[in-house]
Amino acid sequence: MSTPTNREQWQNLADTLITQGEIKADAFIEGEYQASLSGERFDCVSPIDGRVLCQVASCDLEDANIAVKSARAAFDSGVWSELSPVKRKGIMIRFADLLEANKDELALLETLDMGKPIRYSGAVDVVGAARSIRWSGEAIDKIYDEIAPTAHNEIGMITREPVGVVAAIVPWNFPILMACWKLGPALATGNSVILKPSEKSPLTAIRMAQIAIEAGIPKGVLNVLPGFGHTVGKALALHMDVDTLVFTGSTKIAKQLMIYAGESNMKRVWLEAGGKSPNIVFNDAPDLQKAAEAAAAAIAFNQGEVCTAGSRLLVEAGVKDELLGLIAKEMQAWKPGHPLDPATTCGAVVDKQQLDNVLKYIRVGIAEGAELVHGGNQVLTESGGMYVEPTIFSNVENKMTIAKEEIFGPVLSVITFDGMDEAISIGNDSIYGLAAGVWTSNISKAHKTAKALRSGMVWINHYDGGDMTAPFGGYKQSGNGRDKSLHAFDKYTEIKATWIALD
Ligand code: NAD
Ligand code: MN
Fold it and tell me: In the CATH scheme, what is the code of domain 7-273?
């Protein structure tokens, strides 16, 4: 089948999947799909139009116990953990190839499940997911261990070993992509993984498990447990036989996971959490039109449901009016539309709860005295889906709620400043420290500002760049550890020092 080229063709494909009951919705344990032990299921509701797509297995403690046992047995058997790196590499690359071969189906599942436009779910999410698996696989037979600079009569070997059983708990905004940012380095280094997708977007994770098996990942090495955070998520986080917990999600839950680790076996906990990233435009920005395009995309792409969203636009007084005018014009390109229409750039918000949350923040912004200059409304209500206009608030003060809290929707706060020191001080005045943008023609100012910002990623004269070669993650309450790049491998390996006496 060739890739659909219009909304009708995508809709036909979706209808076939849904009505023929072809959407996989069970847990995946020990190489097989199975219902949860309790038999409980929950409705998977599409935010596009409110349609129920399928009923997903709702896993709990008992399922977690079985999955951990399966993962532990697979790890101990050595079938994957002791496979030579070059062989693991081959299977990882095949896994990546198969993700790409199934791109249309995975993209469709992602769009139906969480509302993102089909034009991105394949080209950005599935392709990015495959890239993470492939990059990590390709790297694994090129990393060497170390020999310590010891005295002549001894040898100190520093070797890396897989940690064992990894639980990966991921969010709904980039479901398959966030899952694969974890799976790539976790599997490449030889671990067994239990993946817990968000209850709001479980479908691609469930389907992917089967693809992994097809690629040759042995059974038990990747188990997938759909279900809720407070049930199966908590069970994994408290489990005495999970060695490492990796997480992408909110700061609130990230903190809770550290408590669970402390209350159980002190498992390693690596957290990618929220953000409230400053995008700083100086008077001497080299290209205001480019800055406007980037600022609009930074808040409207993926309906603003992006951890690195440029949700605080810090603009120097001299270019404020011109930049705001340009951004308002750019927002025309981000009108909410049907996610299965390849022309749509801004789709549906993930669910009713998230829509209500975004609308609440818009009301709070108005009540606290920010000036609503663009958008602000729920739209396309007749569709039965969850759509909100990209929204811009001007004259925002950094102490206002909409500048402090992560909205995780398309709501931009514009804050004015004078000079570099004030930009840096406002930029850093946040509990978060994930990302930042800096727009200036002055190379010293660019470097000084980038250095002074307490954030894990800084983009100069663009926004939201990056690939597999550079680490992704944040300072402060945006988390610890990094996804992507070889630095990610640190999370999935223990370091062993072995001393050999030669005399
Ligand atoms: P969330 O924290 O509500 O949920 C994330 C995951 O945790 C879900 O799978 C959920 O089921 C699970 N969970 C919830 N409660 C749990 C508990 N008590 N025990 C164990 N697991 C539990 O976050 P979300 O709403 O799914 O995602 C949005 C958040 O993710 C935003 O804050 C966003 O900034 C963040 N995010 C961060 C990055 C990053 O790399 N820094 C990337 C994407 C998203
Ligand atoms: Mn969903």
Answer: 3.40.605.10
Residues 6+ apart with CB under 8 A from 132: 177, 180, 181, 183, 184, 468, 484
Q: How far is CA 408 from CA 99, 229, 253, 351, 403, in A?
A: 28, 19, 15, 12, 12
- Could you please state the CATH topology (level 3) that the domain comprising 278-467 is classified under: Aldehyde Dehydrogenase; Chain A, domain 2 (3.40.309)
Confidence of residue 376 (pLDDT cuts 50, 70, 90): very high
- Expressed in angstroms and rounded, the spacing between residue 394 Cα and the centre of ligand 2 is 33
Instruction: Tell the residue number behind the tokens 């120097």, with chain if given.
Output: 316
Q: Check if 229 has its Cβ closer than 6 Å to any atom of ligand 1.
A: yes
DSSP strands (E only) in 131-233: 146-147, 154-162, 165-169, 192-196, 222-224
Closest CA to 415 of 454, 273, 388, 424: 424
Full-prediction pTM beyond 0.85?
Answer: yes
Dihedral angle over CA of 143, 149, 154, 156, nearest 10:
-40
In what side-by-side order are the strands of the sheet with 146-147?
A: 146-147, 154-162, 493-501
| 230 in contact with ligand 1, CB cutoff 6 A | yes
